[in-house]
Amino acid sequence: MKREIIHVSTGRPYDIIVENGLLRETGALAAKVTKARNAAVITDTNVAPLFLEAVKNSLEEAGFSVKTYIFPAGETSKNHKTLIGIYEFLAQNGFNRSDVIIALGGGVVGDVAGFAAATFMRGMDFIQVPTTLLAQIDSSIGGKTAVDLCEGKNLVGAFWQPRLVICDPDTLKTLDKRIFADGMAEAIKHTLIKDRTLFERLCDGMQVDAEFICRNIDIKRRVVERDERESGERMLLNFGHTLGHAIEKVYNYEKYTHGEAVAIGMVTITQFAERRGLTKPGTASKIARVIEKNGLPVSCDAPLSEILKAAKNDKKRSAGGITLVLLHDIGEGYLYRVSDSEFNRFFSEVE
């Protein structure tokens, strides 16, 4: 494929570069966007054996002095213990705000490393090198960084845009089916809120290639540019996430991946929205079919009352209510504000 460059015009603008084999150019690309010469590569135990050596060599060849930090893979590492570990690593190795962090990995690595970059010495440059489908089309774009608390997901974080996103589709060849499907949930979400045509192509078995990745990136780019700080339209990207995050929490981030939980959340909230006349009838079944076709679950066995209780701590809750993301129809997402009491009634059976 030819190199694709997608420019993101946020408060601190940056490019997303997509090309097969791009990982080996990390150093040369990084040198163009940062004056730093000391680089901290943050990654996890899954990604390090696959890509760390290549990225480290590329950075060193471009003149960077490189130190690496590896933490245990998985959502359970997305916490303050890991974050403090990164801070201590940076301090012990003499890093300062003129240096750069390279986030090499999936969504968890990007979120935690990005938050470290946003907060260590009040802000460092950082570059996203996403290696999963979910990270390439979603979490590496838009500047959201965070860690989880026992009380809920992503409750402590910052908006901190990267200097660059380096997206190499070849890294997706290393993913097992479950982790690949995890990313497909976010791709499906993008089509449901913004792109009916792309949804229909997914239903027809569209190949996940560079074009597909770029189409998804562009959906998120357009939303983020119009609403960088999530005060309005960007909330649409949370479709399925209010229940999804709650499902992850109920199962202690162990049974379902993020994408699996979001898939369940998208189907469930659409089913209830249909019953209340807020979504076109038949939409939930269409969503369920494409979700199952991509190896994702559409339901779980946790009591709905437990999921709703966990959802009350979601970060999208404010001023005595919560903003739900619903669909008028496929490709037409919208925001629906409910009070705390209305939230529970929304998920009750319609008489």
UniProtKB/TrEMBL annotation:
Assigned keywords, A-Z: Amino-acid biosynthesis, Aromatic amino acid biosynthesis, Cobalt, Cytoplasm, Lyase, Metal-binding, NAD, Nucleotide-binding, Zinc
Needed co-factor(s): NAD(+); Zn(2+); Co(2+)
Cellular compartment(s): Cytoplasm
Cofactor annotation comment: Binds 1 divalent metal cation per subunit. Can use either Co(2+) or Zn(2+).
Domain 3-dehydroquinate synthase N-terminal: 69-180
Cellular component GO terms, alphabetical: cytoplasm
Any one of the GO BP annotations: chorismate biosynthetic process
Residues annotated for Zn(2+) binding in this entry: 186, 241, 258
Main location: cytoplasm
Name of this protein: 3-dehydroquinate synthase
